[in-house]
Design a protein that fits this description.
The structure is a homodimer. Chain A is α/β, with parallel strands linked by helices and about 280 residues long. Chain A contains 14 helices and nine strands. Chain A starts with 16 loop residues before the first strand and ends in a 10-residue tail after the last strand. In chain A, helix 2 packs parallel to helix 4. Chain A has one domain: HUPs (Rossmann fold, 3-Layer(aba) Sandwich). Chain A is globular and about 50 Å long. Chains A, B: It is found in: Cytoplasm. Chains A, B: Belongs to the class-I aminoacyl-tRNA synthetase family. Chains A, B: It is an enzyme of class 6 (ligase).
Amino acid sequence: MEKKDETQHHEPELDQVVNPWQVSAKDGGKIDYDKLIDQFGCQRLDQSLIDRVHRLTSRPPHVFLRRGVFFAHRDFNDILDAYEKGQKFYLYTGRGPSSEALHLGHLIPFMFTKYLQDAFKVPLVIQLTDDEKCMWKNLSVEESQRLARENAKDIIACGFDISRTFIFSDFDYVGGAFYKNMVRVAKCVTLNKVTGIFGFSGEDHIGKISFPPIQAVPSFPSSFPHLFQGKDNPRCLIPCAIDQDPYFRMTRDVAPRLGYHKPALIESSFFPALQVYV
Amino acid sequence: MEKKDETQHHEPELDQVVNPWQVSAKDGGKIDYDKLIDQFGCQRLDQSLIDRVHRLTSRPPHVFLRRGVFFAHRDFNDILDAYEKGQKFYLYTGRGPSSEALHLGHLIPFMFTKYLQDAFKVPLVIQLTDDEKCMWKNLSVEESQRLARENAKDIIACGFDISRTFIFSDFDYVGGAFYKNMVRVAKCVTLNKVTGIFGFSGEDHIGKISFPPIQAVPSFPSSFPHLFQGKDNPRCLIPCAIDQDPYFRMTRDVAPRLGYHKPALIESSFFPALQVYV
């Protein structure tokens, strides 16, 4: 039974820390993913769900599903219910452009999203959060935009269906319907709430505190009038690494208050670092 | 001698409270404007400055100057220096559309701005903060936009030079160069800083905390590429009521770090309420 406010699931765990900016494990360096599922309040992606994907798409599930790289979810079953009834959904994933080129870890959500797009034949929006990286990494606006453009080339190379894919940079696209949804979300989230979810302090600049609504609103189809205007409020499925869960716990808390479906999530473990554990 | 960080001037005064959301005086209901000038750290607009306006514009100073309705300023002398040297400046004022029509108090900055535009022949930007009122007054996005449009009609009726005036609603205009400047400002302002200036608490929603950069950036000409692109970083003069000073103390603190002039201010007292003091 899902609690009403998922943002309450988050309690500080001293032995492992996982949030959008920091992933650190206890001794040995291994993340305890079962504990993370408990802590975040998401669900394990079990074999019966993988079998259902197999049946619905009539193709073998992606190796990242079979091998448990994507291991957790929120409401993925609802997405499959909707799909089975012929209702539409869309995919949303993103990239914070902090470096020149994508490495293998960065590619995991994109490779998996490409499979989901092919298997379910659905639209996809890809958010390049150049504003986020400008704010967190102390990059200039211009450098963040340059990295977003470089990263877009690597993302395009994954082979998405160009007739169903919209890639945008926040610096280019924020405004209009997107900005209106940002304001609607911001009104629903107190400073105490974001401090609880993300651990902000008084020394953090207000750009960081302003950012969560920006990552939230691609979950709402009305943020993309040129894609979804006139469509019947399609559901949103977000493939991502599990460190992004805090943003979407917040988003799921707000969505029904604004008349939207909660976005569903399908979440991966982290790519193992190329280092020797002794 | 101006202190480096003007935002430090603000100390809580228990006997009178003046900020963008609240104006309340001690017993008797009269604001002590001399005390306010000390508290905010701005300057009194004295007769020699008014005489200088007379000389420079070759026309009688506006009655709001002669009668002390506009009574305080920050760097207004620098604007006059620039004007005397033939350098450009522009005017920026605004309106938070919280009601259907403007009353006499609301009209004061617009009537005075119209005089400044006529006297100095300068461009003017007018910001309609429909996003602010949506966030503070619990209006819907649609209702805030409707009020902005209604208010724009009253503002236009003041008779601005249409070839030199740009009126915009935040919901329409935020994005692009404007949004980039919002992010640049937000990076320079900590949560502690805005809490000190505006008195936010943990129960305030993050829309309020995100807003100060939106009111700040019309002070920077690069926020309006269609007006000022290629122009030589013109100075900005802001006519407003003195309750808006906190926004621009923050803006003036940030401006030099981003390579802009500090905006200058010319500030009015409050329109007396139509009530009997006993």
